[in-house]
Here is the input.
Amino acid sequence: MEYYPGRLTERYGCEETAQEALTVYEEIARRRGCIKKGQELDYTKTGMLLLDDFRSGKLGRITLELPKGETEEQ
Here is the structure.
């Protein structure tokens, strides 16, 4: 969440700084109880949870595109 730092921390209570995306994803899965039998993380359920929260605005106002004229270097 390069352009929206702190959103995942606010919503899920996980630390997102200097961590790989998979590490953050797994932490969200554990904190939200997305676990299958045998203590295996349920990546599908976690993904659906993240998408539902994004779509409903629970992560705040986030855009998937940069405004025209913006570049990643700015």
